Recover the amino acids of this structure.
């Protein structure tokens, strides 16, 4: 059985919360790796080796490190490790979800 991904997150972070809930809901196995933003744990050298941008969310999958929540969703989906109900396989349905994922950066997150 492959080693589960490690998920670096903080519940203070909306994208982290969304991904954590999606993985639980979709029954994607992952190892919990909380990073306390209030303690500035994202700024340690140790975490910089996990995510060079020093933000949550990030994952480690074997030797592969990836940041940016939306990129993580697409990566896990391509690997068959993300719920097809949340991120569909059909080109049109996926495009509709992608439309929202691109829209939310400037219209929900920024504010
Ligand atoms: N677009 C990124 C946003 C990353 C981001 O801005 N994370 C914030 C929390 S929501 C963070 O880690 N802030 C800590 C810092 O800037 O030091 C994603 O979706 O993962």
């Amino acid at each position: 059985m492959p080693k589960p991904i490690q998920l670096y997150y903080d519940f203070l972070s909306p994208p982290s919360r969304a991904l954590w809930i999606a993985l639980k809901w979709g029954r994607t196995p992952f190892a919990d790796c909380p990073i306390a933003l209030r303690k500035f744990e994202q700024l340690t050298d140790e975490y910089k080796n996990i995510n060079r941008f020093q933000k949550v969310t990030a994952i480690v999958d074997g030797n592969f490190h990836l940041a940016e929540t939306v990129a993580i969703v697409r990566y896990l989906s391509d690997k068959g490790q993300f719920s097809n109900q949340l991120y569909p396989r059909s080109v049109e349905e996926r495009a509709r979800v992608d439309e929202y994922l691109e829209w939310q950066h400037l219209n929900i997150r920024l504010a």
